[in-house]
Design goal:
The protein contains no helices and 14 strands. By secondary structure, it is mostly beta strands. Strand 13 and strand 14 form a beta hairpin.
Length: 188
Protein backbone atom coordinates (compact mmCIF):
# COMPACT_ATOMS: atom_id res chain seq x y z
CA UNK A 1 0.00 0.00 0.00
CA UNK A 2 1.01 3.58 -0.50
CA UNK A 3 -0.69 6.84 0.35
CA UNK A 4 -0.75 10.12 -1.50
CA UNK A 5 -1.69 13.48 -0.04
CA UNK A 6 -3.57 15.98 -2.18
CA UNK A 7 -3.88 19.53 -0.85
CA UNK A 8 -6.34 21.93 -2.40
CA UNK A 9 -5.85 25.55 -1.41
CA UNK A 10 -8.51 28.22 -1.50
CA UNK A 11 -7.74 31.23 -3.65
CA UNK A 12 -6.10 33.81 -1.36
CA UNK A 13 -8.11 36.79 -0.20
CA UNK A 14 -7.85 39.67 -2.71
CA UNK A 15 -5.27 42.07 -1.34
CA UNK A 16 -6.15 45.69 -0.58
CA UNK A 17 -3.26 47.74 0.84
CA UNK A 18 -5.56 50.59 1.89
CA UNK A 19 -5.67 54.26 0.86
CA UNK A 20 -2.57 56.28 0.03
CA UNK A 21 -1.36 58.48 2.88
CA UNK A 22 -0.02 62.04 2.76
CA UNK A 23 1.50 63.01 6.11
CA UNK A 24 3.34 65.98 7.57
CA UNK A 25 6.51 65.91 9.66
CA UNK A 26 6.13 62.39 11.14
CA UNK A 27 8.44 59.39 11.28
CA UNK A 28 5.85 56.63 11.67
CA UNK A 29 2.41 55.58 10.50
CA UNK A 30 -0.06 52.70 10.66
CA UNK A 31 -0.82 50.71 7.54
CA UNK A 32 -4.42 49.88 6.61
CA UNK A 33 -4.42 46.61 4.68
CA UNK A 34 -7.46 44.38 4.55
CA UNK A 35 -7.96 41.38 6.85
CA UNK A 36 -6.95 37.97 5.49
CA UNK A 37 -9.65 35.27 5.24
CA UNK A 38 -7.77 32.76 3.07
CA UNK A 39 -3.97 32.59 3.32
CA UNK A 40 -1.41 34.75 5.07
CA UNK A 41 -0.43 38.37 4.51
CA UNK A 42 2.99 40.00 4.40
CA UNK A 43 4.07 43.66 4.11
CA UNK A 44 7.24 44.51 2.18
CA UNK A 45 8.94 47.77 1.25
CA UNK A 46 9.01 48.30 -2.53
CA UNK A 47 10.78 51.68 -2.54
CA UNK A 48 11.52 54.68 -0.39
CA UNK A 49 14.17 57.18 0.68
CA UNK A 50 15.36 54.87 3.47
CA UNK A 51 14.54 51.43 4.95
CA UNK A 52 12.09 51.89 7.83
CA UNK A 53 11.03 49.13 10.21
CA UNK A 54 7.81 47.19 9.58
CA UNK A 55 6.80 46.28 13.14
CA UNK A 56 4.66 43.19 12.37
CA UNK A 57 4.91 42.30 8.67
CA UNK A 58 2.07 39.75 8.90
CA UNK A 59 -0.42 42.24 10.39
CA UNK A 60 -2.60 44.18 7.94
CA UNK A 61 -2.47 47.15 10.33
CA UNK A 62 1.22 47.03 11.18
CA UNK A 63 3.01 50.20 12.19
CA UNK A 64 5.99 51.53 10.26
CA UNK A 65 8.73 53.37 12.19
CA UNK A 66 11.94 55.17 11.29
CA UNK A 67 10.59 57.00 8.24
CA UNK A 68 12.02 60.23 6.82
CA UNK A 69 10.54 62.76 4.41
CA UNK A 70 9.90 61.34 0.96
CA UNK A 71 7.65 58.88 -0.88
CA UNK A 72 7.40 55.21 0.07
CA UNK A 73 5.67 52.29 -1.63
CA UNK A 74 4.65 49.32 0.56
CA UNK A 75 3.17 46.08 -0.82
CA UNK A 76 0.56 43.94 0.98
CA UNK A 77 0.81 40.39 -0.42
CA UNK A 78 -1.64 37.62 0.49
CA UNK A 79 -0.51 34.07 -0.32
CA UNK A 80 -2.08 30.67 0.11
CA UNK A 81 -0.19 27.52 -0.84
CA UNK A 82 0.47 27.11 -4.54
CA UNK A 83 -2.24 29.55 -5.60
CA UNK A 84 -1.22 32.79 -7.29
CA UNK A 85 -0.62 35.44 -4.63
CA UNK A 86 -2.65 38.64 -4.54
CA UNK A 87 -0.72 41.90 -4.04
CA UNK A 88 -1.60 45.58 -3.75
CA UNK A 89 0.57 48.66 -3.15
CA UNK A 90 0.05 51.73 -0.99
CA UNK A 91 1.94 55.01 -1.39
CA UNK A 92 2.90 56.96 1.72
CA UNK A 93 4.33 60.46 1.29
CA UNK A 94 5.86 62.35 4.20
CA UNK A 95 6.38 66.10 3.80
CA UNK A 96 8.73 68.28 5.86
CA UNK A 97 7.38 71.45 7.44
CA UNK A 98 7.74 74.38 5.03
CA UNK A 99 10.34 77.08 5.60
CA UNK A 100 9.02 79.85 7.86
CA UNK A 101 7.84 82.69 5.60
CA UNK A 102 9.45 86.13 5.96
CA UNK A 103 7.88 88.76 3.69
CA UNK A 104 10.62 91.33 4.33
CA UNK A 105 10.52 94.80 5.87
CA UNK A 106 7.63 97.20 5.43
CA UNK A 107 8.26 99.82 2.76
CA UNK A 108 7.40 103.54 2.91
CA UNK A 109 7.86 105.15 -0.51
CA UNK A 110 7.00 108.35 -2.31
CA UNK A 111 4.57 108.26 -5.22
CA UNK A 112 5.76 105.04 -6.88
CA UNK A 113 4.14 102.76 -9.45
CA UNK A 114 6.31 99.67 -8.91
CA UNK A 115 8.34 97.99 -6.16
CA UNK A 116 10.51 94.92 -5.61
CA UNK A 117 9.34 92.58 -2.85
CA UNK A 118 11.86 91.05 -0.42
CA UNK A 119 10.60 87.64 0.71
CA UNK A 120 12.89 84.81 1.84
CA UNK A 121 13.79 81.91 -0.46
CA UNK A 122 12.17 78.66 0.75
CA UNK A 123 14.58 75.85 1.62
CA UNK A 124 11.55 73.52 1.95
CA UNK A 125 8.38 73.99 -0.07
CA UNK A 126 7.41 76.68 -2.54
CA UNK A 127 6.25 80.24 -2.10
CA UNK A 128 3.63 82.46 -3.67
CA UNK A 129 2.84 86.18 -3.29
CA UNK A 130 -0.73 87.46 -3.10
CA UNK A 131 -2.20 90.94 -2.83
CA UNK A 132 -4.28 91.07 0.37
CA UNK A 133 -5.41 94.69 0.21
CA UNK A 134 -4.74 98.04 -1.44
CA UNK A 135 -6.32 100.89 -3.34
CA UNK A 136 -6.16 98.91 -6.60
CA UNK A 137 -5.02 95.48 -7.83
CA UNK A 138 -1.42 95.74 -9.06
CA UNK A 139 0.35 93.01 -11.03
CA UNK A 140 2.74 90.69 -9.19
CA UNK A 141 5.13 89.89 -12.06
CA UNK A 142 6.24 86.40 -10.91
CA UNK A 143 4.13 85.35 -7.88
CA UNK A 144 6.44 82.39 -7.09
CA UNK A 145 9.58 84.61 -6.95
CA UNK A 146 10.41 85.84 -3.42
CA UNK A 147 11.84 89.06 -4.93
CA UNK A 148 9.21 89.62 -7.59
CA UNK A 149 8.44 93.08 -8.85
CA UNK A 150 4.96 94.56 -8.50
CA UNK A 151 3.72 97.01 -11.12
CA UNK A 152 0.65 99.16 -11.66
CA UNK A 153 0.54 100.62 -8.15
CA UNK A 154 -1.02 103.94 -7.18
CA UNK A 155 -0.62 105.96 -4.00
CA UNK A 156 -2.01 104.25 -0.91
CA UNK A 157 -1.39 101.38 1.49
CA UNK A 158 -0.93 97.80 0.19
CA UNK A 159 -0.54 94.54 2.06
CA UNK A 160 1.18 91.64 0.28
CA UNK A 161 1.34 88.13 1.72
CA UNK A 162 4.20 85.65 1.16
CA UNK A 163 2.96 82.06 1.66
CA UNK A 164 5.29 79.04 1.75
CA UNK A 165 3.61 75.62 1.40
CA UNK A 166 4.79 72.02 1.30
CA UNK A 167 2.33 69.19 0.61
CA UNK A 168 -0.26 68.65 3.34
CA UNK A 169 1.67 70.57 6.00
CA UNK A 170 0.23 73.82 7.32
CA UNK A 171 1.45 76.75 5.23
CA UNK A 172 3.59 79.54 6.68
CA UNK A 173 2.43 83.14 6.07
CA UNK A 174 4.06 86.55 6.41
CA UNK A 175 2.73 89.98 5.41
CA UNK A 176 4.48 93.15 4.30
CA UNK A 177 2.90 96.60 4.19
CA UNK A 178 3.90 98.93 1.37
CA UNK A 179 2.83 102.56 1.65
CA UNK A 180 3.11 104.92 -1.31
CA UNK A 181 2.66 108.55 -0.30
CA UNK A 182 1.37 111.28 -2.61
CA UNK A 183 3.81 113.99 -3.56
CA UNK A 184 3.17 117.05 -1.41
CA UNK A 185 1.37 120.01 -2.91
CA UNK A 186 3.81 122.41 -4.59
CA UNK A 187 4.31 125.47 -2.39
CA UNK A 188 3.54 128.79 -3.98
Amino acid sequence: TDDVQISIYATPTVSNAGPDQNLCNVNNTTLAGNAVVNGTGNWTLVSGPNVPSITTASSPTSTITGMIAGTYIFRWTISNGVCAASADNVQITIFNLPTVAVAGPNQDLCSITSITLAGNTPAVGSGVWSNISGPNTPTITIPSNPTSTVTGMIDGVYVFEWTISNGVCASSFSDVTVTSYNLPTVVD
